[in-house]
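BUG: 3D viewer hangs when loading the predicted structure for this chain

Environment: internal workstation, default settings.
Expected: structure renders.
Actual: progress bar stalls at 90%.

Input used:
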Amino acid sequence: MTLSPKQRLALRVAGVVLALLMLQVAFSLFYWLPMRSVSIALKPSVDVFALVGIVLIGTSLGRLRGRGRKVLLSLAPILLGACVLLGVAQGIALREFGYNFTLAYHTSKVQALFKMMYEAQSWPVFAISMVLLAGTIILLIVCAAWALSRLIAEGHRGRQHRITLAGGFFLYAVLGGILMGFNGSMIVELANQVDEVVHRDERIKAQAKKIEKTMTTVKVLKIGENLRRPTVLVFVVESYGQILMEAEKYADFREFLAEQQVQLESAGYAQRSMVYDAPVFGGSSWLANASILCRLKVQTEKTYFSLMEAKGSCMPKQFNEAGYHSVFAASNTTKIDDEYRRKFPFETFFTKDDFGYEGPRMSWSYMPDQFLIDFVERNVLSKPSDRPHFAYYKLTSSHHPWDTIPAFIDNWDEVGHGRVFHHRESIRFPDNAFIGGKHYNEGYEASVRYSLQTIVDYLGKMPPERDVLAIVLGDHQPRRPVAVMDRDPWTVPYHVISRDKELVERFARIGYTPGLLTKAPQGRVPGLDTIAGHIIRGLNDMVVIEASAPSAPADATTGSSNASKA
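Structure tokens produced before the viewer hung:
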């Protein structure tokens, strides 16, 4: 079939437009993926503008023939590939966790992320997901390289073709820039990422010095000699978010919570609750836990590493100095390094391999929350001791993807080494997976119900003579689409529970309300970084409780990593 001159012209024009769109995609992924907005995708890219200029000048001077063309077509895919990879990483980081991807702090955690994805679902689902992701990235890079080659070919067709290409593109760039603005330069972003890698250590040390000035506030919060010394149990429930207290779709959960409140009251417990603002959304629990323990807002990976570098004590050391036996229990933590032990000097650490669990894995969680709580009870709390305990539990049964909810064992004596879970039927949502699921809402609610039921039943069966202050809180809101970071607040429920009613009433002075239900807060919400001060001040008769505390200085670099996970 022979094409007419007009048809050939139309095809060339279509090819040029397609090539420009492909380059636009490669350079705009960084901005488009987090928001998925058409207007952001259509914003002219500074990099495409510059690249078209290079092609026009190079072809007009004859510099993009032979070796020059080979050099450009060899280097360009590397640059375009870096932009695509950074764009995908930024899209995942912002959409899933609410922070910017930073090469200096996140690269080392990519393996851990893929490991988590692999272990949280069946290997065929994981393999298909990875093939699709890799295929998409490769396709984008190949298309962008073809687009550049197509523009070079068009530039070599002659002066009139170059004028037409320049006129059409610059008209789009000018009009688009006026109407929508420009996307930033990915070349500059790549340069900034490299710069952060090169100067990583010195910038961490500089921020550590700033943190040390803030951390001095923690040092003066000494627990007085007149301290009441109840055992303090802090249960951090994974993804226990305020969405459960406010969304209409979780009305049944609030009825369940009212039942748990009645059960606690019948066991002699007083309860008060409050809402706290989490530093993260949908994930990055280690940042939330660092905020809780160190009275410091740890919202970024850079702040986390700086905290580890900084001098200054955190809550475990304060309880140690007050004569407590401090315990850290985390079933999904596989490694505790020396740096973590120095910053969080718990006297006893229980991590994955210390529990001797012989039951089945429950999706992302290596073992059920009930087993973890029972283990600490059998091996620590029930043993004779002349010291009270400060136990910090990192619970994981309510971790996304919410596809397997453990069976609750009514008779705790049967929990043992966990073999009983082989014979008890779990609640399953088989279509829930790491990348998505049809029953996320149902699975999420069921998982949090399980964790709270476990805690409430445990407290209800605790010997009445044991003096205990239980703290139950969430680390962050659940990931999308259960909660959406641009729509929902970054808040979590927090409950203080004790048979010592006078102790619980002390928390009323900073706004804690009776019961377990936490209503939508009015006005400013304190952050999780204020909890350490609130707990210690609530225990200390001589210290006036305040509603707020200073936070760490903000930094421009955001990130995520789990220093305590393999």
